[in-house]
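Handout, section B. The chain below has 278 residues.
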Amino acid sequence: MDKANVFADLADDCADLDQILADLGPEDWTRSTPAPGWQVRHQVAHLCAVFRMAAVAASDAPAFQALMAQLGDDFDANVTAALSRYLDTGSAALRGRWREEWTDAVEALAAVPAGQPVPWLVRPLPAPVLAAAGMMELFGHGQDIADTLGTRRDHTDRIRHVVGFAVQTWDFGYLSRNLTPPQRGFRYELTAPSGALWVYGPEDAELITGPAVDLCLLATRRRHRDDLALTAVGADADRWLDIAQAYRGPAGPGRRPGQFDPPAATAGGPSHTLDGQP
């Protein structure tokens, strides 16, 4: 992970999504997304809530602990409560809240002194890692919005932060299903959007290869493995392609094989950028 650039790359990803939202009509905000029960406005409200938590965690640890103390044991109820503070406003106000929350979060994370951990949901994280987690959230929920709008995403090598986070959290899919992870992770040989080769993990580990974008789509559970060009060498690596996820909490149903035909990530049609330069 390029710690020096992760905050700037996070800001660029946020700004790209903000430009997409600027082009939405009032009816677009209530369009149903591939996430069951969630409209575009729910996706944006969720990102607002996540970035607000990150801003508070990075700038005011006691306030973050107080915020966490308000959470109950019901995961879905916690999510609903987090969204409710944003869904009672109109679309213009919601977009304004999104701009406010991501700006505050990026500034707060970038201001954390090097080496100082930031309190988070399960355990404290370095600010660059938490910024990469934010990029993972943007990648996944941005994909839902893109799929809803029929928008083609043009990715750049900024997704290296999402890839690095997915590799770092390789065991989350096991933990969310109460499964015992293998004793070690895997080797990844991935092709970046630029064509560069990104390599992670020990040489003698079971191998996963393919496009880096596909790994991000898999780990955010926005595409089924059958619709991706990822390959595995080894039984554990093959199993990982079934359960990979880069976030804690319930895995959810994911996406069905062939649900997106042609895949919105590569199909022609309207082209906006959620992860790359215009």
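Note. Confidence is low (pLDDT under 50) at residues 263-278. Compare this with the example in section A.
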